[in-house]
Amino acid sequence: GKEKTFDPSFKGPIKKRGCTDILCCLLFFVFILGYIVIGLFAWLNGDPVILLHPTDNQGRICGLNYGDLDLRNKNNLFYFDLTRCASAATLINLQCQTTQICVSTCPNTSWTYFPDVAKLEAARLSHTSHDCDFQDIQTIILSGKCAPYYLPYAPVVGRCIPAIAVDSLNLISSADASNTTITYQSLLDGTAPVKLYLEARAIAENIFADLTVSWYWLLGMLAITAVVAFLWIVIMRWVAGIMVWVTLLGIIGVLSFGVWYCYDEWNVSLIKTNTTIIAVGFTTNLSTYLALQDTWLAFLIILAIVDAIMILLVIFLRKRIQIAIKVIEQSSKAIGWMISTLFYPLVTFLLVLIAVSFWAATALFLASTGSPIYQVIDSRNLTSLPNTTSLHGQTCDINGICPKPNVIYSTTYFHNNVIWLQVVAVFGMLWIVNWILALGQCTLAGAFASYYWAWKKPQDIPLLPLYSSFGRSLRYHTGSLAFGSLIIAIVQIIRLMLEYADNKLKTAENKVAKFILKCMKCCFWCLEKFLKFLNRNAYIMIAVYGKHFCWSAKEAFKLLMRNIIRAAVIDKVTDFILFVGKLIVTVGMGALAWAFFTNKFVSLLQAPTLNYYWMPIIIVSVAAYFVAAGFFNTFGMAVDTIFLCFLEDLERNDGSEEKPYYMSKSLRDVLGKKNKKAKKRKD
Question: Which residue ranges run through the membrane (predicted)?
Answer without folding.
Answer: 21-44, 215-235, 242-261, 296-317, 337-361, 413-431, 576-597, 612-632
